[in-house]
Amino acid sequence: MPFDFLTPRVERLSADGALSVVHPGGAVGRVLRRPVLLLARDLCAFGLFSTAALPRRRRRQAAMLHARLAAPYLRAGSALSKAGDDYGVWWWDAARVEALLAAQQEMQGAPVVTPETLAQPRGEGWRIVRLTQGYEAQLWRDRALVASAWRRDRYDAAAWSAFVRLQRNAEAAPEAPPAPSDLPIAFDNRDAFALAPVELSREQLALMVGGGAALASLCFAAFLFGQSRELAKDVVRVEEQTAEIRAATPQAEAVQRLNASQQKLVTYRRLEEQTGPLSAAGAAIGILALHDLAPTALNAETETLEFTLPYEAIGKIAPVVAELEGSGYFYAVEPRTDSSAMNLTVKMRVREAAPPLTPEVTAGAAPTSTAQP
Known about the structure:
Layout (H helix, E strand, L loop, with lengths): L9 E4 L5 E5 L5 H4 L3 E4 L4 E6 L9 H11 L6 E8 L2 E8 H9 L9 E4 L9 E6 L4 E7 L2 E8 L5 H9 L24 H4 L8 H47 L3 H22 L3 H14 L6 E4 L3 E7 L6 H10 L3 E9 L4 E8 L8 H4 L11
Parallel strand pairs: 1-3, 3-7
Antiparallel strand pairs: 1-2, 4-6, 5-6, 8-9, 9-10, 11-12, 12-14, 13-14
């Protein structure tokens, strides 16, 4: 079993309420990860949601909406599994599962609920799986489950024929039911045991994003500091050389050229010490994370920063704009919607954060004008 120390505690809930331990959990997974609850197949229902007629970017969203609206229970839990361009949709009676768990009082923490079929090894073609209770007929295509049915008794010829007839565009099935297979738990199956985003709290996610942004900003600031020091040394050397040449060279044209070169170096240093879009991008990403938002695109230009959000973020944009403007990094924050592309763009200008250069550094240089917000 790969990375067994990361495996969470895994238990199985049967339809009669019995709770059995499938895996006690690895040393790290037992502490840091939420336990996984495998639901017996007879507690679940399965359906395939076809997305061929939908835009590729909207297929998962449509499958999630289908799982909510087409649920066969009044209060349903659901899970999705990828099946090529389509999605397998699993449902279970959430009220019944909660009642069975409440009677046990052995499960530690809120578990990640998933059907036991998703914890099986992937297959190909037709197969029948012997479960702890009952049998499950399955059809796999390109190692993705596209059909599943459960019955308490072993599949006979009539039951197998009924299952096969319901499958459209399927490969030829064997006339007789395949021999039932006893399958182990596949702990490397990402459908059941992948680290889910819901296992991280909002505070943990914000801390991780903020920490990463702070580290990136620190590295970028260190780079700028090194560049600024080198430029400062160049400015001092040019000032000294300019003074010497001025004393020995009376020509005004030559002195003017030296002043222009010195002015360029001072300007370069000022630009290096300003806060640019890249150094402020970490702060913007951290603010978005606090509102459970993540940009789908980011564009940093000379004095501006622009990022793209999903259209659904429009309900949270007002407090996001307020926090961006109040952070001290940005001003002129402008959100814009694009109904054709179904996204939301936020464009802002980056505020200069460096203190003005000292008179000693700028002495002898021609004055330069800088735009202030």
